[in-house]
Amino acid sequence: MKETTPSAMPPCFERWCARFDDILKNPSQKKGFRHYLGGLLGESGRKNLTQMSNNAIGVVYHQLHHC
Question: Domain of life, per the record (predicted)?
Fold first, then answer.
């Protein structure tokens, strides 16, 4: 299992995510969006919230579920 975090993504990931910053209202939504997208793009075979939160560093299920 490979752990994911937005800081481990290539620089183009942050630039692409920044395009949506004006739509997302607060910093926790911006952070959650980046973790969720990083989980979808990660190498895990399963793409559900439980697995993505287990693979992400410093993220718990409820942070992804409520973003």
Answer: Bacteria
Q: Which amino acid is at 19?
A: R
Range of the domain at 45: 6-65
With a cut of 60, say whether residue 1 has pLDDT above it.
Answer: no
The model's pTM is: 0.79
Sequence letter at residue 67: C
**Placement of tokens 């075979």 in the chain:** 45
Question: How many domains is the chain built from?
Answer: 1
Within a domain: residue 1?
Answer: no
Helix (H), strand (E) at residue 43: none
CB 8 within 8 A of CB 41: no
